[in-house]
Amino acid sequence: MVTFARSSQVDLLRMLTAITRAVSPAFVDCELSFMARQPIDLKIAEAQHRAYETVLGKLGARVISLPAEPDLPDSMFVEDPAIVLDELAVVMPLGTESRRRESESIARALAPYRPLAAIELPGTMEGGDILPVGRILYAGLSRRTNEEGIRQLKALLKPFDYQVIAVPVRGCLHLKSAVTLIGAHTLLANRSWFDSSLLLGYQWIEVAPEEPHAANALAVGTQVIFPESFPGTRTRIEAAGFSIVPIDISELQKAESGLTCSSLLFDAPV
Fold it and tell me: Between the CA of residue 83 and those of 45, 92, 114, 125, 126, what are the distances in Å?
């Protein structure tokens, strides 16, 4: 997906870029917070992740797949160590201490594309808790993202005129486990898991009651990538006029995976 962006001197050809990472050989030892541990078939997980990367490529993204980190089980979840905005990327100390080394390689991967800023301990933050909607960033206050992390993010983004709004999260891992943006003003949500009164002026699609984990979808252009495991919610999304690209992530879901967490998406020069 190629777009044109005007700079002060020259028109630059830009392309949707997706940074991903191969599944770690240690993936079966992933962190879990809200799910019971189940056996994970590593080969199936790897195949499902490769299929995810293929879908991103077919939808127009330039996919940059980083090598697996053998001793970092959760490292395929590249969304968590960083937030990428037009003006900069913010690298964060993750809320789980065992995952914090993941940030180093993500920072190196992002350095060619954005100036880097950082949140420092005792602040913690994970990208799964950050829902950008235009110039507003909704920041989930969760087990993984604390008040100090949100305070630092507000300070870092103030010069760029972003508004950061803290949103308490309950009953799930991240804010984007409970709500994602699937259209310009449309949110897919399980509103029992966060304070939705803080998100004003949007159209809402509620997940099917029997599918509480179905709120994490990934919008790419006019398409919505969505897990095959949530047919009831898929029907609701399609009834609202959205086009679905179904994908099987059933093995990855055993590691509390959604769709947004496995890539960092941003526009960058070709």
Answer: 25, 8, 11, 10, 9
